[in-house]
TrEMBL record:
Organism domain of life: Bacteria
Species this protein is from: Holdemania filiformis
SUPFAM superfamilies given in the database record: Prokaryotic lipoproteins and lipoprotein localization factors (SSF89392)
Name of the protein: Outer membrane lipoprotein carrier protein LolA
Length: 328
């Protein structure tokens, strides 16, 4: 009899322990209620991306609003070293990438930004709580640890997200396979349900006013990528299209690809171009992919990577590696 009672007690204790382990924490419940009641948010902060000894710093502002069934997004990324901005918008008209320094707008159709996680979006951080993760209570908030799953940055394998007790994010740090911080997103201002002024999510209709850029001259081209997927540079040529030099780098190996680099000057009038391809995001870069070509404009240089062997994200890695090194 005593043995049977002991077994029953043991089973009950195990059931209670499993319940305590598997039930959502009070913070997770609070975060879920926050998202259910949310009609808008604005996150401001600084994102640092490290690649070896190279660092890129961006000022980030992420905004979201919901009206009925419609959702609006606006993400501003300012490269601090150049004081140049790129804006990604989603509104009723579609998805737009705005480059103020070139007075240029590209229009897309697609599911951005919910087609993949973004470290600067609240939805991405809250979704981590729905999957496997560890929660640690600290004096000033809650620390969440989980696997990192960013298709645009496969090198990120683990992440930590710190929230304050009001479910507002404080920072996100993503680590590479060597447990080194490769991306840090620190939030300096967070507001919930404060709304936005009329026209905040509108697409620009006229020339865009831009902050004064510290960019004083075009980069000496060509730049040479560090990420080449074991291919070798077999040709470097310069051609001219409408009097504009194009620098062409051809790489050959197990995976062949070609990189074309062209200087782009700002337009006097706002230009809006509708793009049939898919919007592709990297770490601080935005481009579009249409079949076998990825095109990105950064620092007044247009990069086009052509390949039947590389994926869009691998093409993005090629361009990203040009931002940190010039090899000749």
């Amino acid at each position: 009899m005593k043995k049977k009672v002991a077994v029953i007690v043991g089973v009950l204790l195990l059931a209670v322990a499993l319940f305590l382990v598997l039930k959502p924490s009070s913070f997770e419940k609070k975060a879920d209620k926050t998202m259910q009641k949310l009609t808008s948010y604005k996150l401001e902060g600084n994102m640092e991306i490290s690649s070896g000894e190279e660092f890129k710093n961006y000022a980030i502002t992420s905004s979201w609003m919901k009206e009925g069934e419609d959702e609006y997004f606006k993400v501003s990324m300012i490269d601090k070293s150049l004081n140049q901005e790129q804006i990604i918008l989603k509104n009723k008209e579609g998805v737009f990438v705005v480059t103020p320094s070139l007075n240029q707008v590209f229009k897309f159709q697609g599911e951005w930004p919910m087609n993949s996680p973004k470290p600067y979006l609240l939805q991405t951080m809250m979704d981590v709580l729905k999957n496997d993760h560890q929660t640690k209570k600290e004096k000033d908030g809650i620390l969440i640890s989980a696997d990192a799953k960013y298709p645009s940055a496969a090198q990120l394998v683990r992440q930590e997200i710190k929230f304050n007790k009001d479910t507002k994010p404080l920072y996100l740090i993503a680590y590479d396979a060597n447990n080194a911080p490769a991306l840090t997103m620190e939030f300096t201002a967070v507001s919930y349900n404060e709304g936005f002024e009329a026209g905040y999510f509108d697409t620009p209709k006229s020339s865009i006013e831009t902050p004064t850029s510290s960019y004083t001259g075009l980069i000496e081209l060509p730049l040479y990528p560090m990420t080449v997927f074991d291919s070798k540079l077999v040709a470097s040529t310069v051609s001219s299209v409408n009097g504009q030099p194009q620098h062409i780098l051809e790489f050959s190996g197990e995976r062949d690809f070609t990189v074309v680099q062209t200087e782009r000057a700002p337009s006097q009038e706002l230009t809006v171009t509708e793009v049939s391809g898919d919007l592709v995001e990297g770490l601080g870069l935005v481009g579009y992919y249409d079949g076998n070509r990825l095109t990105i404009t950064n620092s007044q240089v247009e990069y086009s990577v052509y390949s039947n062997d590389l994926t869009p994200q691998e093409m993005m890695q090629v361009v990203e590696s040009m931002q940190v090194s010039v090899m000749k």
